[in-house]
Structures are given as structure tokens and as C-alpha cells.
Design a protein that fits this description.
By secondary structure, this protein is of the alpha/beta class. It has 2 domains: about 170 residues, Rossmann fold; about 50 residues, no CATH class. The protein is built from 8 helices and 6 strands. Strands 3-2-4-1-5-6 form a 6-stranded mixed beta sheet. Strand 5 and strand 6 form a beta hairpin. Helix 1 crosses helix 2 and helix 7 runs antiparallel to helix 8.
């Protein structure tokens, strides 16, 4: 059997003008992850990332930890299939009409706008985000011109199939990606419903890893959302 680590990017710049960059905390989470992998003698035969800056920057900081220890780290290959689903575009496309037609969405939006601090913003935004994305995933509403959830899951599965097929027996590999693709991989392993898969996409912690075992016939989940390297509870984040 071979082993695949799916690693979620570290904390990005939530509510900043450019979300797709690591925060200072995200950079520290990445350093701690790299040190943990080195100390535990986890080596990789192949590494891939999605196309996002936050995914690639996480991989680069982890690679620096290997270099500092005098260890090899494979040059990551970029797979566009491991990009996150287009959540920001979905929300932008759907929010105006939902504010006009859905009282529950309007109440959640007002709560977000009235948030007194960043902690409250994170909580109220997640509630609003989950309500909108849930409607989109269940196909209660459509976002024209934006990749659908079904297209997203097909894309990720295509990337996984391609990545796994390029390997050899007994290898150990890593993909630096986001919560959505990790949830799709778990769905692939466990045959989860769409609703449960969406829920999983929200609970992967930043810089956590999920471990899968695979060969030509099987793709099996070994662990999900592991983060033993994040000892300080203040460093455990979802966004």
C-alpha cells in the first residue's frame, strides 16, 4: 500500500482584500508543521499543490524545514484540479438576490454587518456562508457562470485519479490543498453523501493533514484532520 497525505493550507488572510495569502499566523503554522514532519521522519517521494498562493506558500515553508535539516523535499508539481471550490464567486453571485428574497439570509447578513470585532465577524460570516453555500450545493439556487459543486467534485476526483496513477507501489506522497478537496477525497474513500461532504469541508483545521492508504484497487481513509503539531490552542484555526 502507498500513503497519501492531504495537507490543508495554513491560515489565509480572512476578510482581507486578498484572501489568497498566508497570514502571519499561517506562516507560523506552516513552520511548525514542517518541523513536526522532519522530526517524525516523514519523507515524501512526490509532492503536489493546488494552484492557490496559500497552498503553494504552505508547501514552500514546509520545504524550508526539510532544507534546514539537510533533507530532500520533492519539487512540488502544480495540479489545477486541487483548487478550492469557488466559494467567493458563489456568494457574490447569490447574495444580492437572496437578500431580496430570503428573510433568513437577510438576518444572517445583518448579524455579520453588526459584528463588533473580528472574532464575531468570523462566527457570523461562517453562519452566513454556510447558509448560502448549502443552498447552492443542494441546487436550491444556481450561480450562472460559476463552477457547480458537482463539477468541483468531478474535478477533484479527476486530479486524484491522475496523481495516484502516476505513482508506484509503496510510495509516500503529499498534496497541499484546501478543505473542499480534502472533503471530496474523504467522500471518495467513505462514499459519503453530498451534505456530509460539505460539512467536512468546513472542519479541517489550517495546516492539518488527512492520511489515505491506496493501491490499484483501494483508496482508504486512515486519519482525518490530524494536527498534533499545533500544541498551542490559540494557533488552532479553521479560517
Amino acid at each position: 500500500m502507498s500513503t497519501l497525505y492531504l495537507i490543508r493550507h495554513a491560515q489565509a488572510s480572512f476578510l482581507a482584500e486578498n484572501y489568497d495569502q498566508l497570514s502571519a499566523l499561517g506562516e507560523e503554522q506552516s513552520r511548525v508543521l514542517g518541523q513536526f514532519l522532519v522530526q517524525n521522519k516523514i519523507r515524501f517521494d512526490r509532492v503536489a499543490t493546488g494552484p492557490c498562493v496559500r497552498q503553494q506558500h504552505t508547501a514552500r515553508i514546509v520545504a524550508d524545514a526539510y532544507a534546514a535539516a539537510g533533507l530532500d523535499f520533492p519539487a512540488p508539481l502544480t495540479f489545477p484540479e486541487f483548487d478550492e471550490y469557488q466559494a467567493e464567486e458563489v456568494v457574490k453571485a447569490l447574495l444580492p438576490n437572496l437578500l431580496a428574497t430570503d428573510p433568513a439570509i437577510g438576518e444572517l447578513h445583518r448579524g455579520f454587518l453588526a459584528s463588533p470585532d473580528q472574532l464575531a465577524q468570523r462566527r457570523t460570516f461562517q453562519n452566513l456562508f454556510a447558509a448560502i453555500i448549502g443552498k447552492w450545493v443542494r441546487e436550491e439556487v444556481a450561480a450562472p457562470g460559476v463552477e457547480s459543486w458537482q463539477q468541483f467534485t468531478a474535478r477533484v476526483n479527476s486530479g486524484l485519479t491522475k496523481f495516484l496513477a502516476q505513482g508506484r507501489r509503496g510510495e509516500q506522497t503529499a498534496i497541499f490543498t484546501s478543505g473542499g478537496p480534502i472533503a471530496v477525497a474523504v467522500q471518495r474513500a467513505l462514499a459519503l453523501s453530498t451534505e456530509r461532504t460539505l460539512g467536512l469541508s468546513w472542519i479541517s483545521r489550517n495546516s492539518s493533514y488527512s492520511e489515505f492508504l491506496y493501491d490499484a484497487e483501494r483508496f482508504t481513509l486512515s486519519s482525518f484532520n490530524a494536527h498534533p503539531h499545533i500544541v498551542d490552542f490559540a494557533m488552532r484555526t479553521y479560517r
